Structures are given as C-alpha cells and as structure tokens.
Amino acid sequence: MNKQLTNVIGDPPSRAHKIKSLMRFVWVLCSVVVLQSAAFPTLGQTINISEKNTSISAIFRQIRQQSGYDFLYNKNLIKDVKVTVKLNNASINQALEASLKGLGLTYKINDKIIFLERHQESAAKQDSMIYGLVIDQATNVRMPGVTITNVSTKVKAHTDVDGAFEIPGEKGTRLLVSYIGYETAEILVQTADYHITVNMKEAVNVMEDVVVNGIFTRKKESFTGSAATFGKEELLRVGNQNVIKSLANLDPSFKLVDNLQFGSDPNRLPDIQLRGQSGLPDLNSEFRSNPNLPLFIVDGFESTLQKVIDLDIYRVASVTVLKDAASKSIYGSRAANGVVVIETVRPAAGKLQISFNNNINVEVPDLRSYNLVNSMQKLDVELAAGIYSGAEPSDQVNQLRQYNRNLEAALSGVNTDWLAQPVRNGVGYRNSIRAEGGDAAFRYGVDLMHNKITGTMKGSDRNTLTGAIDLSYRLNNISINNILTITSNKANNSPYGSFENFARLNPYNSPFDRTGKLQKIANYNVKNGTETEGGVLLPDNIPVFNPLWNGYIGVLDNDAYTDIINNFNVDWRISSNLRINSRFSVTKQVTERNIFLPPDHTSFGNFTGEDVQRKGSYTKGNGSSILMNGNLNLSYLKQIDKHYITFNSGVDANTRESENLSYIIEGFKDKDINFPSYGLQYQTGSRLTGIESIRREAGAFASTNYSFDDRYLMDASLRFTGNSQFGTNNKWGTFWSLGLGWNIHKEKFIAEHNIFDQLRLRGTVGYTGSQDFESYLGMTTFQYIQDRTYLNGNGSFLVGMANPNLRWQRKKDNNVGLDMTTYGGKLNLTLEYYLSYTDGLLTQVSLPPSSGFQMYTANLGEVKNTGWEGRATYSIFKDVESRKSLSVYGTFAQNKNTLIKISNSLGAWNKGQDTIKSNLPKLRFIEGQSLNSIWAVRSLGIDPSTGREIYLTKDGDETFEWNADDQVAAGDLMPKLQGNLGFDLQLKGWQFNVAFAYRWGGQMYNQTLLDKVENANIYNNVDRRVLNDRWRKPGDQSFFKDIANPEVTRPSTRFVEDWSELTLSTINVAYELERLNFIQKIGLRRAKLGFNANNLFVISTVRQERGTDYPFARTLSSTLQILF
C-alpha cells in the first residue's frame, strides 16, 4: 500500500500539471453554469406549444407541465378566453407574452409563481385587490376553502380549489386567514404589488371558530347545531378544582344537582343534568346511579365521570358541550342526555419547554347553616317536651336523676361543639409538570401530576397520580399519534362516619371523661329504666355512643383504582380535500374496595350474647374492566364557487367487559388483625357475590354540512347502531338529525348598515338514544340455587323475563337558536329554545299472577322537556396593546319537564310509597306532572286550641287526619330561572374574575324544619327554633305542632318553601410575573401567580342545614404557573 501511494505522489510533473489543468477547467465551467442559471433563470426553460383556438387555461396547463411554474390569477380575468399560440423552444417569458398578447393582462414572476393581473391602465379602473396563495407549511400543499377576512372592512373571501384568493384591499391592510385545524394567521399586506403567499401552521390547541364533536371538527360559522365551547383559560378563570365544577360555572344548562346530604365530599360523584331530567330514577337497581348522566368523550373516546373529575385541569385544551340533535346525533344510542367533549393539550413544536403548575388548596368547613341549641337551652326543651316525666314514681325518680346529671354537666361548663370535632381545615395540593417539544416531523409531550385533595372531615382525602406520554410523528401527509395515560387513585373516607352522628349529639355530653380520656359512651338515655343504689345504670338503659371514638381505633374505609389507557391515532391527508382518520383505544381498569370496622366500633356496641363473636367486619370488593374501541372516519370538503360542502362518514365498534366480586367477613378479635382471612365467617345471611357484564356495539354514520355563499346553511346526519343490550327484534336502531341556518348578517340589506358582525338564525330536529341500564335486561336470566342440591346438581329459578322488543330510549330534540354579535364585536348574545320528547323509557310492567312472574322490563314511559337558555357577553373596553380589558357576562336557563305516560307498575309504586310512614315527600309518578314535583297534603296550619295540624281534603274539607289520597303537587324543585353572572378584568398584568351562581323560583321541602324542629327527636340535639316556635299551650299561635306530640308529621305544604339562592361561586386574582425584569433574567419564559376562592357565601330564602352527612366547604387556593 505504501508503495502504491509513493508511486502516485511520484508521478512525472507533466502528468500532474495536466490533472490540475483539467480540474481548473471543470471548476470554471461549473461556476459559469451556476452563475448563468442564477442570473438568467428563464433561459434554461424551453417551451413548445402548437394550439389553435384553445382556452388559455389549457395553454397555462401546458406551460406549467413543461416549465414547473405555477399560476395564480383571478379566473374572471380569462373567463371564456381562447387564443392561438405557436411556440418552438421558447423561454418562459416568451411563452407568457405570446399567450397574453392582446388580452390587456400582464404578469409577474415571484419564486416560480406567475401572478396575472390586468394591465396597469386597466387595473387603475378597478378597485384595489389583494391576491394570494395559501399553502400548508408542513406539506407545501395548496389549501382550498380557507377563509380570508379583511379586518377593517369585515369583507370575507375563500380560497379556490388551487388555494388562491382575491379580496378587496390595499397596502397596509390586515388580513385574518383561518381554517379548521390550523392556527389563525394575521397578515399585514406590505408588498407594493399586493401579491402574498400565506403559510398555514397546523394548530396544536386552537379551538376558536370551530366546533369539536370528538370525531371531527366543523366551522362554527356554518354550524346549525347547539354547542358551547370553553377554552382552558376560561375554565381556569372560574375555578381550578376540576373540569366539571368549572363547566357548571360557565354553562347554565349544565347543572350540578344540589346535594344537601354529601356537601363537599371529595369522594362523592355529583349528580349532573344537561337540559333537565329525561330518564326515570333508579327504583329497583335496574339502572345505573344516574340515568340522566351525559356522555363524556376525552380525546375521541368514551370516558367516565370519575375519570373526568380526576383529570388534571391544566391538561385540558377545551371542553365542548353538545346539546341538540345536530351536534350529538353521530353518537346515536348514547347521546340522549347530551355529550361533553374534552380535548387535551397537544404537544407544541419547537425547542424543549417545561411548564410547572402548583396549587395549594384549603378546604374550610362551612357550618353556618346549622342553628343548634346550647346545653342550657337543650335542657329547657327537654323539660318542655316532658321526657323527664315517668309513668311510675320509680321511673320519675330515675328520669329526674338523669336530668340532674345533665344539668350538673351543663352548669360545670360542658357545652360541647360537636360539629367542630370531626372537621378541619383540609390543606391539599396539586403539582403538575409538562415537558414538550419537537419539530414539524416529530413532537412529544410528557405529563406528570399528583393531586391530593384533603377533605374537611378528618381522615378523608383523595390522592391521584397521573402520568401521560403523547408522541406524534408526521411523514409527508400521514400523521401518527399515540397517547399513553396511567392513573392511580386512592380515596379514603372519614373513619368518623356520617357528620349527622355528631350533629345529633347533645351539647351537655362530652367526648372525654373527667380525666380527659376519650370515652366510647358519652352518656345514657334512661327510658323507663331502673337504677341500683350505687347509682350505676343497668344495661337496659340506652347508651349514647361517642362517634369520635371510631376515629382512633383503626377504621379503614377506602376505594382505589388503576387505569391504563392507550389511544392510537393515524391521520392520512390524501389531499387538501380528502382525509382519512383511524383510531383505536384500549382501557384497562382495576378497582378495589376496603371497609374494616374493628370489633370495638360503636356500630357493634349493642351486640350481646352469641352476637359478641360477630363483632368486627371487613367488606372487600374487587373489580376489573376492559374497553376496546376502534373507528375509521373519512372527511371530505369541496368548494365550488359559492357552494361549500363538507362530508364526514365513519364506522366504529366497541366492546366492554367487566366483573365485580364482593363479600363481607365478620368476627374479628382485634383492631390490628384486619386481614379478611382472619375473620370468623361470612356475614350472617350473606355470601360471596359477583356480577359480570358484556356489552358490544357497532355502528356507522354519515354527516354533511352545506353552505351557499356563507348565508344559507344545512347540516344533516344519519347513524345506524347495533347493540347487544337490546331485544332480538331491536338489535339495530336508526338516529338522524337535520339542521338549517341563515347568516342574516351576510345579506346585502343587512350588511350595508354595518350593524351586525354576526346574526345567525338556526333550527334543528333529530333523534338520539339512551342505553344507561344493565346489559341483561333484554334476556331471559336464571339464578342457580346454591344453598342446596338435588342428585348432585343445582337447580335454578327465573329472575328476569326476556323482552325481544326491548330497545333503547329514544329522544326527539327540537332546537331553535339565535347568535348575534354587534357593536363592533362588543356584544355577543346567544339564545336557545328547545322542546324534547323522550319515549320508550324503561319501566317495569306488572304481569298477571298466572304468568308465574311478577313483572318484566319494557319501553313504555314518555317525558317532555321544554326550556330556554342564553348567554350574553359585553366588552366594556379592550386594548390589546396595553393589555387592558373589562367584560361582563350573564347566562340563564329554564327547564320544565312533564311525565306524559307511565306503566302500570309505576302506578303500583305510587300506592306502595303512600303506605310508608315518613316525614319525607315520596317520589310519585303522575301523568301530566313534573318528575320534580313535591307531593304533600294542603295544610291550613296549627290549630291554636289543640296544637294539631289542620289539613284540607281533595274536596276542600278541613280535617285533622292526613290521607295520601289528598296529596297535591305543591311545588317543583326546578327553578324558574338559573344561571351565572360575572365579570373579567385585565389591567397591566393583573387579572380579576368574579362569578356568581343564582337560582330564582321553584320550591324546596325544608327537611331541617322536620328533622330538627317539628319531628325532632328530643333525645338528640335540635334547632333553636324549637325554643320559641313550637306549640306549648292552648291559645299559642305557632307554625309548629305541640312540642309534646311524638307523632310523625306526614308530607305537608307547611314545609314547602319558595327557593331562591345567590352564591359567590368564584373570585380569582392573578398577576403575570413576567412583567417583572428579574423573571426574564432567571431564564423563565412565563410566570403567573394567582389566588382563587370558591363558594365564599350562599344567600338563600330557605334556612336549612346543608351537608348533613358531609359538610360543605369554602375552597381557597393559590396558583403558581411557570414556563421554562
């Protein structure tokens, strides 16, 4: 090798000189060619054309094919123009001059794009026009159907099939260029020839001007349906706890039903209604917990309410609420109750950026609704009620001795605030961090979140840990995306049990003995009991257990779940008009439930004899489910002159399998031995139980949107769905919708007045369905006899009769809406009216005894809902450059439902409810009445002479006897009007947001007056109104009956009260720290510090206890957002 190298280096000088000379010549030749090509680009193009009397557009096509140059021009310039052209080895300039000769046209070449326009002399006679071309930045493909808006004149134009547009304007004009799925571009026209090229960038999380339905997007401007979209910043302005609570503060039709029992319990799911109640409640455990629950879609796939509540609100990009048939019918049999579509934040291209969000939350118990008596007042009530008066002299002595002990405790200063014992100021936090970056081809996003909610009751909390990886890859016109999310959750319930256990205890009882030691029994109630000479109470006296005891003996009460969700998505943009999308999702969930009550728990305090060995119990539950969902969708759009058409179709299939097992073990010897296998036996009368469910569904849909000249609009959709839940004769169902709209502001007779930026009238009609019930209702089901056998086999018995005609509940939605923007965009108004009928409600149908079966499930009920809703926003002032703005807003909603038809079994249900002695109004199903009606007997008040209540019969006669047949619809829980009011202020980096929630009209049955005043158990604590408002002697004018009357008061109109309420739901204050110099110096791109307060006060016309099982809370939180 060395020898060869030496030979080359040692070549004769003459040979080396020849090689060098040749290299110089080649270099000079290449340089000349490059320079000539750069200086004279047209000389390298030769064009040959020979055409006679041919359209000039055909000539342009040949020039494009032979030269590689593109054309951009107004089609009207060459309409119906025919020319004769003969060219041989012509340059591009020669070809253009020959083709345009005598046409009064001229051309300009810029970056291989040929712009045609009228000759300057001709153009001077025309209005000034701006010409442009819109291109996808990533694929370099021309984009048709893009909307271009002149900011100053509001004139709009659209790109044609070649991505070209023209719009009136001049130098200095600002243009807004927008298209679904792309970021809106703002262009300042600065070129003297008014020719521009716009590169559109695909949007990451922009949801303005579009409606997202979870499968595809639609232009809001041409959409006829009813949908409300809220972005991330809007959601955070009205609360940072979870998406559901923020949404309730923004959309008046999205209602969280007041839960006066469970208050702010972090582990309790809210009851949600969207546009009223359209399903019957759960009467026989045949339905799920809430038959009115909307469908939740997260990133294109079905989710659960629990997962949505546990979702990190900082990961949410937008929430869209689909309300009418035109917007939700593509979901067919699942959409009757409305659809909530949630899109999460997608990775943004660019350098690595890291965002961090921190919230410190404080839950402050709100006990202001309680109005209980103190120790001395309670003793006065007891004396007046006569509970210390015994029937026999010996009983009287025992009762007076107990009174003296209670009086001694009260006089010694015992006045226990039992409400304060199990509560605390719960301090929790949420930390989330996100890293994202990438380029046009590959993007990534990684999320981590830990959310700890510490409840107001001691020992209650909720811990959620979530991790997500979002990867996107783009190769030319194919995009692949995969999101893997893993969530682990554990919820601990308070070991102290129900808050009501504390609210009922008397203040003269103490949780501690005289030495300060916690005691299990706070006191004894003596009821006709006896006493020994030593003063020791005998066991037949009733102990008053101290619920505080249970918090210190090792009680376990928790739920846990682990979710693994993988969403895979492929998007293929075949052309600028055609797109195919395919998605596949797998969700695996594992759940666990544990409740351990040690043997020393107060619930076992009365166990005696053989039952003592049964003390202590362990409830164990395990469940698992898997959901697989796949779909394939096609989207097509086309613009032909003033006609704009979009078409979407798709097929989908899903399967859900789940199983749950549970058992209760009893008989534990010690609080530290808390594993199920250490128990004695299954709970008496119980055994291991379980349930499994399989549901499969497949369907296809087609949806189209048509607009003419952006003035006349139409939406239509059709869906077929097959489901395994239904009867053999009704496996498939058809759902459809039709919507029409009119952009009135684009009519010349309106536009010329320049009053409205938007004035749209729209109307829709269509059908959707509901399938929120168990999977086996359409089948014949049997249950094995497991406690005995016959000939080594198990028998079985019928538990469910098949109904081959069982189908899903169908809801017909009619909706009319008006959208208006005026005063230069300052005032935005949306108004909606809807009328819906839900038929085929699932009810139980009674069968004759001869059938051998009592009832079966059928579609017989029918409900009607009517209502109004609206939203108005007014911008008082807005200065974008100085970042100053002030806007106010208000929303309202009104809904009324009517039960049109019921089955015979519901009539029997009504009669059964009437026989139950209770002070609560019973749920009744009466045709022609509301599902929210309050049923009670009309009352004339308390008779001053006897202290008894006087009722009115259905015939109008007075009576002292309560009769169920005399009940009337005395009120309705639904308000006449409800909604939100608020304002948003931005001022030099400061942000102030205030939101109120209100309800006006409607009624409530004041249960507090029953439980703590009228029917108060005098042995427990009572409301202060017992002191002065109960009848005591003849002649008393009182609202409440005789204080010594122990009879249960049945439902009476005395306790039906008008219910109006105002809640300060949110105060938010924030400051953008990046305005401070040191923030940029330490390398931060953005920093924001904020404070948020929720539910600071409630003003109500009804004085009642709120949060009887779990107290309500006021939430205070700080917020820190940092972007590196």
From TrEMBL:
Keywords: Cell outer membrane, Ion transport, Iron, Iron transport, Membrane, TonB box, Transmembrane, Transmembrane beta strand, Transport. SMART domains: STN. Signal peptide: none annotated. It comes from the Bacteria. It is found in: Cell outer membrane. Coiled coil: none annotated. InterPro entries: Beta-barrel_TonB (IPR000531), Beta-barrel_TonB_sf (IPR036942), CarboxyPept-like_regulatory (IPR008969), Plug_dom (IPR012910), Plug_dom_sf (IPR037066), Secretin/TonB_short_N (IPR011662), TonB-dep_OMP_SusC/RagA (IPR023996), TonB-dep_OMP_SusC/RagA_CS (IPR023997). One of its GO terms (biological process) is iron ion transport. Residues 69-119 form the Secretin/TonB short N-terminal domain. GO terms for cellular component: cell outer membrane. The keyword Ion transport applies. It is a multi-pass membrane protein. The keyword Acyltransferase does not apply. Pfam families: CarbopepD_reg_2, Plug, STN, TonB_dep_Rec_b-barrel. Belongs to the TonB-dependent receptor family. NCBIfam families: OMP_RagA_SusC (TIGR04056), SusC_RagA_signa (TIGR04057). This is TonB-linked SusC/RagA family outer membrane protein. The lineage of its organism: Bacteria, Pseudomonadati, Bacteroidota, Sphingobacteriia, Sphingobacteriales.
